[in-house]
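ESCALATION

Customer reports they have been waiting on this structure for their group meeting. Please prioritize. Original submission:
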Amino acid sequence: MDNDSILAIGGMALVTYLTRICGPFFVRLVKGNHRLEACLAQLPASILAALLAPLVFATGPAEAVAAGITLVIAFKCKSMPLALMAGVCSVAFLRQLQMFGA
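Update from on-call: job pushed to the front of the queue and completed.
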């Protein structure tokens, strides 16, 4: 590996690390209210939904139904491992149904 590649990788790692440590610092400087705090609390879920929704609906009906089953289990049971197992099992089962033409 040449020096330019090592320098580029090191620079990207430094910038990534700086964005991680500067976020909490800058948030402390902002004076917030209940509304701002509620929006910031929902931000990770909305980013996750924005990233996953196109993927779920672009892959096929088995994956879309399995995503729905996963959401229902997650909201009803409040257990992420259980929801994850339900999602994986349901997508495997639904793909098998599609494979056999059911």
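Sent to customer with the following note: DSSP finds four helices and no strands in the chain.
Escalation resolved.
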